[in-house]
Amino acid sequence: MPELPEVEVTRRSFAAAIEGARVTGLRLGKPLRWPLGVDPETLLGARVGAVQRRGKYLWLPLGAAGGLLMHLGMSGSLAFLDTTPASGAHDHFDLHTDRGLLRLTDPRRFGAVVWGAALEAEPVATLLAGLGLEPFDERFDGLHLHAALSGRRVAIKQALLAGDIVVGAGNIYACEALFMAGIDPRLAAGKLSRPRADKLALAVRTVLGRALEAGGTTLRDFRDAHGVAGSFQMQAQVYGREGESCRRCGTAIRRIVQGQRSTFFCPSCQKR
């Protein structure tokens, strides 16, 4: 599933090329998670503004024509092409511009392209409501994290995945951040001390920063808009390493299931 680093890497890979482009056509394939919500003809001639990201959503502003909110779902990817190849069975959205073609490929069709008059207008506002702080927002620190976790009985890893405190700490990155901070993923979130919250906030930012530098994570099929795979998986300390030796202490990495997601951790380095 594309997480924040993969979505941001995707944005960076095509944002400069498409900014200022004029929309010349729009093709819809099989239905995605939600309907587009506008007659495609009304978008013709619109100019694409600076592409923005909020959490795992991308916003393509189209001036007076509003904008498009895009989500890659569980298996989606965007490609920006200077040619117009025939659409495949899993190509469900094409935005034709005078600078190239932006194509959404999504085999499982959990992704979405939704029109909105503005970021603050419905349905976009509702879809973005409830998202936590961006991990690189200066307001996201140990103080914020500790206060937001107060009273929560859910496991700390599940609290990170929820996305209402901080966005971007998806499954892989939550595992890696908890390892970096030395925190057992089963710890009740409300029991996290302030000093450990400081360590975890820093770890979240550090792990996500490294993932961005590595072009994201490609476990199966993630590619950026130019077809380039990510390599963060090569740096993973615990994720996907069940039974292998911890690179810090030599203890075998354990795998458990939390909320139907695999969790990897070192039972020696990470404490409750």
From TrEMBL:
SMART domains per record: Fapy_DNA_glyco (SM00898), H2TH (SM01232)
The protein's required cofactors: Zn(2+)
Domain FPG-type stretches: 237-271
Enzyme Commission number(s): 3.2.2.23, 4.2.99.18
Catalytic residues (positions): P2, E3, K56, R261
Subunit structure, as described in the record: Monomer.
Name by which UniProt lists this protein: Formamidopyrimidine-DNA glycosylase
Organism listed in the record: Pelomonas margarita
